[in-house]
Amino acid sequence: MKTVTSIATLVLLFSLDTANALELSPEAVNTASLDSLATERPKKPSPDPDPAIVRLQVLLDRAGASPGVIDGLYGENVGKAVAGFEAMNKLTEDGKLDPEVITRLEAGPPILESYVITKEDAAGLVDRIPEDYGEKAKMASMGYTSVEEKLAERFHMDIDLMKALNPSADFAPGKTVQVVVTGSPRDGKVKRIEVNGKTGQVLAYDARGALLAAYPATVGSEDNPSPSGTHKVKGVARMPVYRYDPKVNFKQGKNNKVLTIPKGPNGPVGSIWIDLTEPTYGIHGTPDPELIDKVGSHGCVRLTNWDAEELGGMVKPGVMVKFVE
Description:
The chain is α+β, with helices and mostly antiparallel strands. The chain has 2 domains: 1-183, no CATH class; 192-324, L,D-transpeptidase catalytic domain-like, CATH 2.40.440.10. It has helices spanning 7-23, 26-30, 51-62, 76-88, 99-105, 133-136, 147-154, 159-165, 305-312; strands at 112-116, 176-180, 192-196, 201-205, 211-216, 218-219, 229-238, 242-244, 259-261, 272-276, 282-284, 301-302, 320-324. A hairpin with a 5-residue loop joins β10 and β11 (282-284). α7 (147-154) packs across α8. The longest helix is centred in the first third of the chain and has 17 residues, at 7-23.
């Protein structure tokens, strides 16, 4: 959570939010043209959200080529998603947004729609999520900390984008906000999963070898690498509690004892755990979707909660998981 420490900082943030809100009006996003984008990711992408990138990310998300969190930024995960879309459609896999890719992507409903916030959206929230695992273990749940965080995750959005699209919203029940229109979860049957540590991707294939879905992923780190070789899915746990054991996993802070951290989307492994036959390793969600493939994991494979949940719905015990470099 960001903390405003001065009036000057507050004024600066307000100015930036106001500018982004003007650039990211519903009309701007819904009428944005993908033709305005560079064929491939610029060497120095703009740090400001772009309506056309929002459009591109939403269309890729609908097509099963996940860009990760939808934030309006031309990051590396966008290029990976374009390459995934190309693979699904038997196009040249170069990650470039050429006219053929644009033509095949451009279909479906408007990019944004109105959503009325319900009482259920405001239920089950927690005041904060502490960093220390010992403090986490004392909580009743690892729930969302705000309505905007809950809605941002439901609609695969970065929370800053959610706020930029709704600059004057207080996110109270009964109020109407603008959200992106994502696709329905894919419902195929995954036969094989490929985890690529070099590209930072998880690729899911069906029995015919066709690519069903492509996800950006955080795959281990230099200090805590993921396993190598081929393993199998052992099972899927939704909204799992997290058992922290410093002797088996890693050392967090000053915690030396085994801890049980309650379930919730903001837990250490997010909202779902796909257990692998390699002990202590799995494919799981995250409380920080904006950090996918940007910050290392403790050896496991980390996806956004929504991508991990989609994948979890398409796998069964015995599905092969191959780790490649």
